Each structure stands twice: as structure tokens, then as C-alpha cells.
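Researcher: Hi, I'm a grad student and pretty new to this. My advisor asked me to get structures for two proteins we've been looking at. I'm not sure of the right format, so I'll just paste the first sequence and hope you can take it from there.
Model: That works fine. Here's the first sequence with its C-alpha cells right after it:
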Amino acid sequence: MKALDHIYEVARQNACPIVLSEGEDPRIQQAAIIAVEKGIARPILLGDVASITASLEAFGAKVGTIDVRHPAEHPRLKDMADQYFQMRQHKGVTPQEAFEAVKTPLVHAAMMVRNTEAGGTVGGAVHTTADTVRVALQCIGKEPSMTTVSSFFLMLACAPEAKVRGGMIFSDCGLVVDPTGPELASIARASADSCRSLLRQEPKVALLSFSTAGSAKHESLDKIHFALNEVRASEPDLQIDGEIQFDAALDQEIRARKAPGSKLDGMPNVFVFPNLAAGNIGYKIAERMGGMQAIGPILQGLKRPANDLSRGCSVDDIVSTIAVTVVQGINGTSGVNRFVDWAAGYT
């Protein structure tokens, strides 16, 4: 089964509420309809109820199949505002500012995820990455075991003529500009977890650079060595190696010549880039010249799933991100499989 097909199948088996903060965007509406048709999620669209409902019906959605809500109509809005105030008062947020903030769709969606009213949230078709990530950090927070929130692209090579086929994790390609050694270690560990969650494979992690096994000397390699040692100390059974050049990581014969002592067995499925420039360039080359499908950027390292979209995203991009968010939530909600509705509750 192709990696993306497997993600969709797992999402169908675990379909949960996913809140879409930009419910008034036509692409979001069409993606919500497809998500319902495929059975991969129970979308909640935030925004003007009358306008969104009319648009959904114009797109052919059956009345009542998609949950549409206005943030200001939440019956426990005051409680949510009090909660937000307690979280943000140290930054000078007043009670009134907190009340206004939780009426905005982006903040409201993140608070719903925090309070397990939804399994995850997807935004960014309208808002910037900076806004989306900042709100997720403020309202949902980091996973305690992770020091860094980072991102990855799920790279899929499914064409019959592809030299390398299957799914891979490329990180960080969208968020952390120049990670330190500890940040790089956190990115590597989170990416390994993402591989287990989405690809259902044991991760094999390559810490990429321009050097392999000491073939070059440069201060930029120090952080890779730090990350390697830290990850090996915390996860001794994880297959991870670096610094390593991409060709040596990909091709076992080349690796045997350049790094005969490498602990990697076979081709890696997780590629960790040394900085954002390398990661962003690398995934776009793989996508545009290598014919791979890129899904993301997907956030990792949060307590519960919140994902960012490109403002140029397509409907298909949104549907895939919804499916990924559902799968992330299986293990990313601290075992929470019950989601509390506004009025009552459902499973």
C-alpha cells in the first residue's frame, strides 16, 4: 500500500473532529467536503455560519454533514477566555483582550484542541506561518519531552519509474532557521517519532551535511556531532548516523566506502538537514526535479496536533494535511480518544 493511502486508511479508522480555523476560505470548504466523503475526519469549520453554510451547499455538501460554528457563540466562551487570560497574563494580556482573542478563529481553534474539543487543527491558508505557529505554541504548547517545535515534509515517491520509492521524512524544511546542537537533536527525535506515526516504520535517521564521517573539518559540523551523541544517549536503539552526505546516506554501497563504520542498515527514511536553507532547497529539488509529492510543512513537537498550510495550498493539499493531522492525533493527544463537544460530548 502506498504511504499516503495507508495514512488515509488509518485516518478513516480513527476519524475525529478536526477544527479548521479558516472556514470561510472556499478551499477549506471544499477540503472539508472531501474529508467527509472519504470518512477521514469530522471537520469543524469556524467563521460566519450563514455564509459558510451557503457556500457548502453551493459546493454540493449535504445539509448538516459538516459542523459549522462561530467562535463568539461558544456557550463557554467566558471560561475559555479566563483560561486564555491565565495562560497569557504574564505577557500583559488583560481579561478583555483575552475575551476578544478567543473570539478570533485562529486562537479559538487552538483552544478547542487544548481542551480536547477537537483532535487537531489546520490553518495557514489565509494566516502566515508565524501567526499559526505562534498561536499553537501559546495555546497548545510543546510536548514536554521535546525542547523544540519544528516541521517536516512528508515526501512521497510513488511513480513506477521513480528510482527510490516509498515515503520519507525531510526535516526541518520550514521552521527552524539555524538549529543549535540541542535543537537539532530534538528535531531528529521528533522526526523519528513522526516516521513511526505516519509511515508505520522503524526510523532510520541520517543527519545530513557536506561531510561524511569526518571527511571535512568545520565548526558547523560540531552541532551535528552533538545532536548525534545526544540522540544516541537518549534512544540507544534508534538507527541514526551523521554527519553524512546525501549520496552516502541514500546508497549503501557508497556509504560502505565513505563510512564503513556506519550504524545505518539500508536506506534511511528520515533525512535531517543542518539548517533551513538546506532543508527548504532540498525538498523543493526533490519535489520539482525528482517528481516526489511533498505534504507539509507538518508541525512536530507540540502537545497536540496543529498544522500549518501554505497560503498557496490546493484543496488536495488541505485534505492530505487533515488526514495527517488525524493520524498524528492518535498518539499525540496523550491517549485522549474522547472529544468534548460544545454542548454535550461525543466519541
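Researcher: Oh nice, that was easy. Here's the second one.
Model: And its structure:
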Amino acid sequence: MKMRKLFAVLMAAAIAVSLCACGGGAKMTMGTGSATGTYYGFGGVLGQYIKNYADIEVTVVSTDGSKANIQGIDAGDYQLGTVQSDVMAYAWEGMRSFEGGKIDSFRVVAGLYAEAVQLVTMDENIKSVADLKGRSVSIGAPGSGVYFNAIDVLTAAGLSEADINPQYQSFSDSTDALKDGKIDAAFIVAGAPTPAITELCTTNSAYLVPIDGDVAASLMDSCPFYTTYSIPAGTYPGQTNDVETVTVKATLIVSAKAEDDQVYNLTKAIFDHMSDIAKENGKGAELSIANATSGMTAPFHPGAARYFAEQGFTVPTV
């Protein structure tokens, strides 16, 4: 009988070891954005490095973007998410699209790269934001980051939502509508080059409208999230000159419930391999410890803070 019990114990232990070996490390789901946007592609690259160097299996999913990712983390559906820094601030403070109640169930991992507010059109008569008056313009889904960016830019140009014929469309829907002549222009907020815009410029006579001068100055005076940015010539097919615009910052967030060691390891997996990530995705060239730790309006996760402290950077936590 004792031998049978011993055999049973040994078999149970062997099965447990086998299951652990097969199961690997932890698992996380990362909410990103449109499949034709920068979040999704760059999120896939980050997920691979997190898997390879932090032993965390990351499932990258296409979503409706920043607000959906914050809500998904709050609901427990996602553990990681890419978000605009301004939308993150809205959630943390309970304002704009989060006026129904603040969400503080997430923490910052790091700032990633500049997200350009890109105004794209195929109408040669649209040369400035002011020219959008009376036009059919895609301004993103209601309450989305793109929506508020578009409203901010229109306001800075002396226009309101009522001055245009607003269409509330995703990146991919916006590009399809432009191709079909259903809209005159679209706001797309993402790292440049954005695949959806690249495709549009490759097969059509699309171009970017600058957001500069008094419009940019007024915008930055009223909204501290924005900074100026120049999209270099050649970023898109047919783009012969630099295009001036404004940006917010793409940011990686994580559930506040995530274990400190896991977040430390995934942060290390990204920032110990910045040069390698840059070879796989152009936005990786913008990764830096200084950029990762600056301009955040929500607190960092303690695990990420520990990694950055080792690099000589102190960040706020709760």
C-alpha cells in the first residue's frame, strides 16, 4: 500500500512538472488598435520581445484604440494596452470621454513614441485646417482619442464640429471612404508612417495637410499634451516636403494588479533591446529611457519604476 501511495505521489509530481514545462510563463493580452494602424504592428513586435526575454506569452489583439484598451484593462479582459497619453490623462482624471467616472486600474509602463495628428485628404483645394469648413471629415469614433484630437485642432483653427459634416470612422473606414469619394478628409492619429496612410498614398493622390502656425500655437497653449512635430519628406509615397503637425505620445500601460516582477521583466525586455526592436519596426527608433519616463500624467507601475531606477531615472508611483 505504501508503495502504491509513493507511486501515486511521484506520478502526480511528474504530471505537475510536465504541465509547468508545457505551460511556460505568464500570459497577458495586449489591446492595441486598428489592424491597419501603428499600435497593432508595433504591439506585435513588443509582444514578441516580451515573450522571448520575459517569458510572458502576449496575445496582441486589434481593438478600437485607447479608450477601449483602458476599459478592457479595467474589466480584466486585457493586462496590457497601448494608449494615447492624452486619453490616459482623461481616464485618470475622469474627464472628457471618462466623465462618467475616472478609471485608475492601470499604471504606466513607459512612453513609446510620438503619435502624429495626421490630416489626410485627396482634395487639392484643402491646404489648411480652415479649409475643412463645410466639408465631410472623418474625426474618429465618438469619445475616442482621435475624436478629441480632431476637436482640439478644429477649435484651435476657429472651427467647431457644427462647421463640418462630421463622420465618425475608424482608420480603415476612413481610408476606404476617402478612396470612394465619400469624405473629403480624415484625421488619423498614429505613429508615422501609418500603414493605412501609406496604402492611401501609394494608390491614390493623397497628401497630408499641415497643422502648424497659429493653429499649433493655440492648441499647445490650451492643451499641454501636445508638442510640435515634423513628418520628414519621404515618409509617405509622393511626400516631397516635411509636413509640420502636432503630436501626443503613444504609451504602454499595464493592469495595476500585475505582479511587480513581471512588469519589471517586461520593461527590461523592451528597453534592453531597443536597437533590435528598431530594426523590426521604425517606431522602435524613438524608444529611449528619457522619452519613456517623461511627460506622463498617470503614475508608473512599481515594477517599471524599479527598472528605470536602475537606469538612473526616478518616476512617480502610487
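Researcher: Is there anything I should tell my advisor about the second?
Model: You could mention this: The beta strands are 26-31, 56-61, 80-84, 106-121, 136-138, 165-167, 185-190, 207-209, 227-231, 243-255.
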